[in-house]
Model the fold of this input.
Amino acid sequence: MKPTKIIIVAIALIGSLHLYSQTLNWNSLDSTKHIVNVGIGWDYSLYYSLGYAYKVDTNTPFILHANFSIPSGETLLDDFKTKIGVQVILLNKPNLKGALSLNGIYRRYENPLVRLQNFGSEFKGSFGYYKPRWFVAGEVGFDKAIVTHFKHSQSYREIIYQDVKDGWYEPTTGGHFLYGIQSGYSFKKSDITLNIGFVTTQDFKTTPLIPYYLMFGYNYKI
Amino acid sequence: MNTKILSIVILTCLLIMSCDKELDINEPGNLVPKTVVEDPNLPSISINETLLHVETYGNPDNSIVVFLHGGPGADYQNGLHVKQLADNGYFVLFYDQRGTGLSQRHDKESYSIQLYLDDLSSVIEHYRTSPNQKIFLFGHSWGAMLAAAYINSYPDSIDGAIFAEAGGFNKQLLDEYGEASRKLNLFSEATNDVMYFDQFLTGKQNEHEILDYKLSLASSFSYTNGNDEGIEGPSPFWRNGAVVLQAFMDIAENEGFDFTTNLNQFQTNVLFIYGENNKSYGLGFAQKEAAFFPNSEIVQIDDTGHEMIYFKWNAVHPIVLNYLNSLN
Done:
């Protein structure tokens, strides 16, 4: 593996040990330090997520966050995704906010034919209008599957291709752009959030099987 | 102390991973087998400006049975039981259709129904040894649709046909079959198994290796427990053709199709077979398709589903052989 990939893998590995880029109302975080998030969404499948975020108060406030999500299905933990990252406010006007988030990703997939483990990254930017009780913003992101390990089952070798090669594969095995809007309503120590948008593959000519995403989230602020 | 242990574990993992030689996902032969273009040892014929993977069995002067596999985008491996007809006095011909199986890949824009019909004409012409040699088509699923399309275009060139659960001779019937056979349960593992890996693998429009591989991973959906098509389990295949599948899906969606407009001119008796356990097809669907022909017979294959040729060949064989012998 090349050094840059090793660094990304290291970030993602650390992330996998703990803890999504959370959708936040930047105008309702004044005294907040900890944020716990749960969500249900639809992107590459129907999924459920649990996340934690810690707000670091500096001159440029930023948030460290981590997230674990699993898709629906009878088999628990054969597929999952972990993310760890940082979210930074770059534009911090009273009601206009621009934020950037960068995540390291470790994800796993298994079906009767193959097990895939991937290290990747996600870059996401948002810009919108924020009030203490509500917000609406546009968001653009890019999810890159940088390096993936393939381990095929005996079934794959018997019914499809006996000489398939297991191991780490490159160049990057996947990449998707996403674009949409995020919105939310804040009350007391809680936020209810909604993200909705479209997903397209990196060549802009093809679309994934599910070309859109949708997520409902709930944040509890401490 | 914990941080040190954590660092050692991470660095050890990275060291082990860095020792692996990375593989190229676009290299033929890594994740999917090479086609006849990359592997000259595979049996092939060059026709109609493409290279097709082929196998033949029996005496070349006997009546020809051309097996047309399903898909679009599958291959003939799970239909190889049909070669038994060579022992019954037929020349059995298999070919992977253009862009799938081990045949040559092409860009998406190049595919059309007419091109597939021209390929079939060229294959028949390549192997036919005399003008009086009879030609029978044996199509499974999409292959049966292709057989209908061929007879619809060239009703005088074929001497008989067997249709094993054609997915619809026109767009309306295709939609009807598709809605009945591909119901998605959002909460099921099987649905997740065909969707979740999209974030791991992204192929560009004509990156055949990665796209074919992705389609092969989705194949487990077809035989999941309780599937509506009554498929018993996995059946073998070499390599899917994802680009040709997408091309024909786009053609069906954007242009529609109707392979039935001239079928009433084909006076020869045709045979329809269907699996008892395929809830999406059944006698009713077979009757709708058979009604386009002036003369037809319908036979149910008991205790099997859509993949009857692979899983219940012993039951299919005598019915097909009786039909062929009645016309030979």
User: Anything to note?
Assistant: The first helix of chain B runs from residue 2 to 19. The mean pLDDT of chain B is 91. The beta strands of chain B are 23-24, 44-47, 50-57, 63-68, 90-95, 135-140, 160-164, 270-275, 296-301.
